[in-house]
Design brief:
single chain; about 280 residues; alpha/beta; about 35% helix
Amino acid sequence: MNMQNILIPTDFSDNSLNALNYALILLKETPCNIHILHVLDFANRRASVIANGPTLLEVSPHKTESAEKKLKNILRPIRGKSEFNRHRFSSRCEYGFFIEVVRKLVIDKKIDLIVLGTRGATGLKKIILGSNAGDVITKVRCNTLIIPENTPLKVPNKIAFATDFNFHYSHAILDSITRIANLCQAPINIMNVRTNHVRLNTVQRLNKGELKGYLVEIFPRSHSFYELKGPKVTDTIETFVTNKNIGMLLMVGKNLNFLQHLLFNATIQKVSFQTKVPFWVLHD
């Protein structure tokens, strides 16, 4: 099996450390190169007086040394443990703009998966909008696993794949779905949410048929299709996730309209599943 390259950014908060621990459990049997990253982000620094121009963006050696020490403290209890003998660990402290640093590492290290923790429990808008997680989902072409705050450290035993069937499922997407299902040893629940009574069009029916044909061949007894109806996509998905005890939600990044409707609906007040269930965004 080829080594997977995993990037896990951390700001040393409890939720980012929880994301790391979740990834270690999920990928326990998978040979991995795990890169733990801390970014001293220019975007989060306030430029008070433009007296010295670009020097305002310089990072003091003290901050760099402090961050590097914290990274070592994270790795110290992990390295050498027998349960992680399939993993190789490295850490790095970078300074720059967060999203640019992540993009560069995705290319340089041939990253297969980014794992990110989120914080906050007052709804999806506050958690995702304007956050590093939101930027990665929408601006970095790499599979990304979002781990909400306080996610239990256990492998999910049920997976849901939310889709509107509006696009062709590429080999890369199907391969990712297969890998995740095998990784979790979990059945896949395909769900399509419609807020009106309009039937699937020709393209949607064709894409659904191709997806169904693939799953019948690969997972003949561990997949199901659900057609859900409700006034709001988010509420309908939340109800499904709760009632079916779904442990992880999958969605394709290029399904942008559906993704934006789910993630960036300004009217969202509370989306409890987002504060409990890991969310895996797939890319070609």
